[in-house]
Specification:
5 helices, single chain, 110 residues, 3 strands, alpha+beta, globular, 49% helix, 3-stranded mixed sheet
């Protein structure tokens, strides 16, 4: 069901499932860096001293994300959070948001 999808798209699917149970956690997960994502293992990078880093230490949080991933993949992966790592997040960058906004406001010349 998830094969062939970009890892960020797969993670968005998991985040959407989390958001049903805990909307605030879903919003926080958009800022996690997807370091590894598959049916066997998920590794997410989080910024040190961030709200997400503190939240990632909560057993209930880990369980909600693990259940959402199991529903997405059909098997329960090992879930790990790494603090202080860089990677790509599902949250759009501020720059890309500004570019899209400017493009939407630019009148068409055709």
């Amino acid at each position: 069901r998830s094969s062939g999808l970009d890892p960020l798209e797969q993670f968005r699917g998991i985040v959407d499932r989390v958001r049903v149970a805990r909307p605030e956690l879903g919003a926080l997960l958009h800022h996690a860096a997807v370091l590894e994502l598959g049916p066997d293992r998920i590794t997410l990078g989080v910024e040190p001293a961030s709200v997400l880093e503190r939240t990632s230490r909560d057993a209930a949080t880990v369980e909600i994300v693990r259940r959402a991933a199991a529903a997405h993949f059909g098997t329960e992966p090992v879930l790990r959070f790494e603090v202080g790592t860089n990677g790509t997040t599902v949250a759009p960058s501020r720059r890309s948001q500004r570019v899209r906004s400017a493009a939407a406001q630019t009148p068409s010349t055709s």
